[in-house]
Design brief:
Oligomer: single chain
Number of helices: 11
CATH architecture of the largest domain: Alpha-Beta Complex
Low-confidence stretches: 1-16, 40-54, 68-75, 407-416
Radius of gyration: 36 Å
Largest sheet: 5 strands, mixed
Mean pLDDT: 83
Strand content: 25-35%
Shape: elongated
Strand order of the largest sheet: 7-14-13-9-10
CATH topology of the largest domain: Coagulation Factor XIII, Chain A, domain 2
Number of strands: 24
Structural class: alpha+beta
Helix content: 10-25%
CATH class of the largest domain: Alpha Beta
C-alpha cells in the first residue's frame, strides 16, 4: 500500500462532476496496471476542500495503517491486487480435450474431463482462513437449479441449493506452492453440464476477478477410467470417434437405389470461427428466443440439441440458415449442386445477419447439420435413404399396395440401364405369361421427370402399345425416348421414372405394373 500526492491540477477541480470525473479517470488508469485504489469522492473531496490537519485512520483488510495527518492536495489509497496473473494453458488443455483444431488461443474444453489453470497470487494462499471460491455461469439468468450456475472452491464448503444440478469441482494440484501464492488448479465441468460459453470468476479474500471465458462441448471420449461420470454421447471405439467427430471430409451419396452417385463433401467443422458460428445457431433458435434460461439448461441434452439444430437447418424458422428449392430457377442464390462443403454456407449465414443462404436440397441440409454436430462434439454421419415414403395425403400413414396374390419382384441378373445425357434412351419391356392360352394385352408406358427426393415434376412422354402374350414365350416391347423430347424436362431433375401398366384385355381387372428409374450419366468431357 502507498499514498500518492496528486498534481495541483486537482486543486482547481470543482466540488461537482469535474472532480469526480478526474478521480475516476485516474482510477481507471491504475486498474489497467492491476492496481486498485479507493476513490471515495465524499471523504477525499472533504479533505481537499478543507485542506486542514486532520486525523485520518486508514483500515486496510485486517491492518490499520499509520495515520496521515496532513494532505498537501489529495491522498489516494493504492492497494495491489491479490491476483497477480492467470495462465489458462490453452494449447495444452485444448490438445488434451481434442479441441486444438478448433482453436489454439481460446480455451475450449469437453465436459466430464479436467483442465488445468495456473493462478498467481501476490500473497501466500491460506485456504483455512480465506477460501478460494469459483463461480461458473452460462446463459441468461443462470441458476444452480437449472444447472447453468455452479459455485465451488477450495476447500469446497460452498452452501449450494439442495436441488443444484451440474456441479463443477476444483482441486489444488500437488505441484502448487501455496506459500508463494502459486496455484495450479484442476477444474472439472460435470459430464452432464450444459454445453456453451461460460464465464468463470474467482474470489479470494475480498477481491473477485475474471478467471476465464471458455467454451464447453460434448465429450465423446468420456467415459474414461479417471472420470466419475459418462457423457451421454460417448463411444468406446476410437476409430469411430475419429470418423464421426474429427473427420473433416466425407462422401455423400445421391442418385437412385439402382444407380448410386457419390460426391465429396468438406464438412469443415474446424475452420475459422466455426465454434462462434455454431454457438450463434443455438443463441438464435426459436426455443432460446422464447425462453433463454430454459433453453440454455436443456443444452445438456444431445437429443434436444440435435432437434434444435435440425429445425434451424431449414429457413422455415426465422433464423434458419438454408433456403430450400427443389426446382429451378434459382434466382437470388446458388443452385444446390453449387455447394461442395458446409463452411462457406455457415460463414455466409453468419456474415449476413443470420439470414437464410440460398439454396439447398437434402444432401446439402444433411452435410451442414453433420458439420454442426461434429463441432459440438456429437458423433454424426450422413446417411442417404433411397425410395423414401412420402405422406402425400397427410394422413400420417404410409400406404403400401400389393397384388391380391402377394406377388413380389424376382431377382434379375440384368444390369441397370445408364444412358448418357444427350443421347436417346432406348429400353424394352419383357413380358412372360404362365397361362396356357394366348392373352391379348394393352401396355401403357409413361415417363416422368423426377426431383431428387422422388417426387414427380411433370410427364415427359406417354404411349400405348398392343400385343399378344403367347404361352411359354416372352413378349418384348421396345420403346424409345428421344433426347429432343426429354432434355428440356431434365435440366433441373435427377432421374426419369419409367412406368409400364399392362392390362389383360380378356380380364381387364387384371392389371400389372412395372416401374424403373433411369439416371442419366454426365457425358464425357475432353479438352484438346
Amino acid at each position: 500500500m502507498c499514498f500518492v500526492d496528486l498534481e495541483k491540477g486537482f486543486d482547481h477541480a470543482s466540488s461537482g462532476g469535474g472532480f469526480q470525473l478526474a478521480l475516476e479517470g485516474f482510477a481507471a488508469e491504475c486498474k489497467a496496471v492491476r492496481i486498485r485504489i479507493s476513490t471515495s469522492t465524499f471523504k477525499s473531496e472533504a479533505i481537499v476542500l478543507s485542506q486542514k490537519r486532520a486525523e485520518c485512520p486508514l483500515p486496510v483488510r485486517d491492518e490499520l495503517l499509520t495515520q496521515v495527518t496532513e494532505f498537501k492536495n489529495l491522498g489516494v489509497l493504492f492497494m495491489i491486487s491479490v491476483f497477480k496473473g492467470v495462465n489458462l494453458n490453452c494449447e495444452t488443455n485444448n490438445t488434451e480435450h481434442h479441441t486444438k483444431k478448433i482453436s489454439k488461443d481460446e480455451l475450449i474444453v469437453r465436459r466430464g474431463q479436467p483442465f488445468t489453470v495456473k493462478v498467481e497470487l501476490t500473497e501466500p494462499f491460506k485456504p483455512d482462513f480465506y477460501p478460494l471460491t469459483i463461480t461458473a455461469v452460462t446463459g441468461e439468468n443462470p441458476s444452480e437449479d437449472l444447472g447453468t450456475k455452479s459455485c465451488f472452491g477450495i476447500p469446497d464448503k460452498i452452501q449450494r441449493s439442495p436441488s443444484a444440478e451440474a456441479v463443477w469441482k476444483v482441486e489444488l494440484e500437488k505441484r502448487s506452492y501455496p506459500l508463494t501464492g502459486s496455484l495450479n488448479l484442476t477444474i472439472t465441468p460435470p459430464a452432464d453440464a450444459p454445453i456453451g460459453e461460460y464465464n468463470l470468476t474467482t474470489r479470494y479474500r475480498d477481491e473477485e476477478t475474471l478467471l476465464a471465458n471458455l467454451v464447453v462441448l460434448f465429450n465423446p471420449w468420456c467415459p474414461d477410467p479417471c472420470l466419475s461420470l459418462d457423457d451421454s454421447v460417448s463411444i468406446c471405439d476410437e476409430a469411430q470417434t475419429q470418423e464421426y467427430v474429427m473427420n473433416e471430409h466425407g462422401i455423400i451419396y445421391k442418385g437412385s437405389g439402382d444407380y448410386l452417385i457419390s460426391i465429396h463433401w468438406d464438412f469443415g467443422q474446424f475452420e475459422e470461427d466455426m465454434a462462434k458460428i455454431c454457438l450463434k445457431i443455438l443463441d438464435v433458435n426459436p426455443k432460446h428466443l422464447e425462453n433463454p434460461a430454459k433453453d440454455a439448461s436443456a443444452h445438456c441434452n444431445p437429443i434436444y440439441l440435435s432437434r434444435v439444430v435440425s429445425a434451424m437447418i431449414n429457413s422455415g424458422d426465422e433464423y434458419g440458415f438454408l433456403g430450400g428449392r427443389w426446382a429451378g430457377p434459382f434466382w437470388g442464390g446458388d443452385e444446390p449442386s453449387h455447394w461442395s462443403g458446409s463452411y462457406h454456407i455457415l460463414k455466409r449465414w453468419h456474415n449476413i445477419g443470420c439470414h437464410p443462404v440460398k439454396y439447398g436440397q437434402c444432401w446439402v441440409f444433411a452435410g451442414v447439420m453433420c458439420s454442426v454436430m461434429r463441432l459440438l462434439g456429437i458423433p454424426c454421419r450422413v446417411v442417404t435413404n433411397y425410395q423414401s415414403a412420402h405422406d402425400s395425403n397427410k394422413n400420417l400413414i404410409i400406404d403400401v399396395y400389393h397384388a391380391d396374390y402377394g406377388v413380389r419382384e424376382k431377382e434379375t441378373k440384368d444390369s441397370v440401364s445408364k444412358p448418357k445425357d444427350g443421347q436417346d434412351v432406348s429400353l424394352k419391356l419383357v413380358l412372360n405369361s404362365e397361362s396356357s392360352t394366348a392373352r391379348p394385352v394393352s401396355i401403357k408406358i409413361s415417363v416422368q421427370a423426377m426431383r431428387y427426393n422422388g417426387s414427380p415434376v411433370e410427364n415427359i412422354q406417354s404411349e400405348v402399345k398392343e400385343g399378344t402374350l403367347l404361352p411359354g414365350k416372352d413378349l418384348s416391347i421396345p420403346f424409345l425416348f428421344p433426347f429432343l423430347v426429354y432434355h428440356e424436362h431434365m435440366v433441373d431433375c435427377e432421374s426419369m421414372k419409367i412406368s409400364a401398366m399392362v392390362t389383360d384385355k380378356l380380364e381387364p381387372k387384371n392389371v400389372y405394373l412395372a416401374v424403373n428409374d433411369v439416371i442419366l450419366l454426365d457425358p464425357p468431357i475432353s479438352i484438346t
